[in-house]
Fold:
Amino acid sequence: MLLSKKLTRILFFVFCLVFLILSFNLPASAHQDGQTGAPAGASHLYLPRVNRVTVFRLTGRIRDTAAGAMPGVTVYAGGRIAATTAADGVYTLYLAAGSYTLTPSRSNQTFVPLSPQVIVPSGAGQQDFICTNCLQPGGKLNVYEMVTVPAGTFQMGCAQKDAYCQTTAESPLHTVYLDAYAIDMYEVTNARYKTCVDAGGCSVPDYSSFPIYSSYFGDPAYAEHPVVGVAWDQAAAFCAWEGKRLPTEAEWEKAARGGSDTRIYPWGDALPDCSYGNMSYCSRSTDVVGSHPAGASPYGAQDMAGNVWEWVSDWYQENYYNSQSVWNNPTGPASGSFRVLRGGSWSLYWYSARVSYRIEGNLYQGSNSLGFRCAASH
Structure:
């Protein structure tokens, strides 16, 4: 009997010792609090160990054969990861292991080599590109170019196939007639706006609310980026100085959608990615205007989706589309407290890039993601 009791105690001691040894050798996710284990006070919940992704640095320089470094060119890796060249023409990408197609993007310009494939990490290092006479007068972006939109009807508002419709602000879908007009192919650039400032016809953009942009307007590296920090009256004054005007909301939407269908985005119904436009922090700031030709509208207007929000002439009224039944050259409500903004921006998610998406903007205040383009009647 005594031997049996001693044996029982020994076995119990061995069992406890084995249990302790096993406990101390469990995976971290099964016994530690913190990021890789169970949250404090929640012993019943176990989270898997966090896997760290190794990224590799890939750099390159983009230069013009005659003029040298090309700043402000956006380089895409796999269509989504992007970097923009600095004043010296150098870009830097941080990529996880994998295969990527590198694509420099700038309107109407061709870079060599054409869309090279890079294997990371074995290809990580440097990939340079050359553009022939891109910065010469013959290859320079014509930021004053306009596209013509013919007279006729189009469907304005949110299409039934669009899952992101705002029921009140974007509905119902309705037929609108517009006379012919022209609209800027590109958003107004810093350089273009500066000509008006230098001539005394426009006031300097206000960057007091976002001082990190204080040198953006005068920096040559951003000359072909859209001007930002302009209030509604500054945008209207610039267009008038050029002998133009801000587009109406209906003109803006027809230029983005076209007159033949109810496409959700300027390029069609395909889901957005960074090849179509600078949206959802593709570039973490503005791009050179016209950097996404794949996202052009049916009439050839560039950056109607993303890059910067755009002022239009109309006052904002949420239920405006329910205010009448016949729509001929509408110019918006007679009065209001806010003006309409269109097109989304680099800092907002994909849904804002839909051609029917509309929000109100404080007409007295600009932002680092708000610009405009001009229109002219025919």
In short: DSSP finds five helices and 18 strands in the chain. Residues 55-139 form a domain with the Immunoglobulin-like fold (CATH 2.60.40.1120). The chain has two domains: 55-139, 146-377. Helices lie at 2-24, 28-31, 190-198, 232-241, 249-257.
